[in-house]
Amino acid sequence: MRGIVLYGPPASGKSTITVALGELDPRFALVRKLKMGNQRGTEYDFVSAAELDRLRAAGRVLIETRRYGNVYAIDRDRIDRLTSAGRIPIVHLGNLGDVRRLVEDAPWLTVLLWVPRQICQQRSHQRGDNDTAHRLQAWDETLADLRADDDGLFHHRFSTDQAGPDEIARVIAGTFPDEGTVPLGHRA
Ligand SMILES: Nc1ncnc2c1ncn2[C@@H]1O[C@H](COP(=O)(O)OP(=O)(O)OP(=O)(O)O)[C@@H](O)[C@H]1O
Questions:
Q1: Which fold has domain 4-173?
Q2: What region holds the Guanylate kinase-like domain (predicted)?
Q3: ipTM
Q4: Substitution site in 6, 14, 16 for ligand 1 pocket (most atoms within 8 Å of beta carbon)
Q5: What's the CA-to-centroid distance between 14 and ligand 1, angstroms?
Q6: pTM
Q7: 28 CA → ligand 1 middle, Å
Q8: Domain parsing of the chain, residue ranges
């Protein structure tokens, strides 16, 4: 597997589980997205339109998503650099089209993280979001996306109101044996 895709609505736990994975095994590393538009958010590296054009022309833009007037992109080179360094890249995605595009390119472990709408709202308030209404709109869009068709796309599905982040991280990490470990079934 090339890495891990965490897909889910706002406050479903993508960032929390990414941190838990990193604590379990330092090989896990978030692929920071590029963002062109407003300079809000801590998980992005901000780029200009010219820089994004340059990356696109160089064939480096693996995923490109437009939302609320902003453009979010994933730079293929970042994934390649992590993989070459023996790390396991983690990508956060919010729509199924992007998940499909990524897995067409290479095999990724696909993980659906779910959270009920009411808990999404509670978590959004608790972590101090000032745009909870937008988050709930994105939650509605995620549900519509999943209802339309997610047949067989995900290897794992977790309800993050029913299992803790460490428990979920342990299951995901179990897919990536330690380097040098011979997987069960292949021992002499
Ligand atoms: N089992 C769980 N897994 C993950 N997060 C949990 C869980 N239980 C409670 N939480 C809480 O839910 C919140 C999830 O927020 P987090 O930022 O990780 O979600 P996200 O999917 O990355 O959100 P966004 O897409 O809006 O950035 C955190 O405050 C976390 O502490």
A1: Rossmann fold (3.40.50)
A2: 1-93
A3: 0.98
A4: 16
A5: 6
A6: 0.93
A7: 18
A8: 4-173
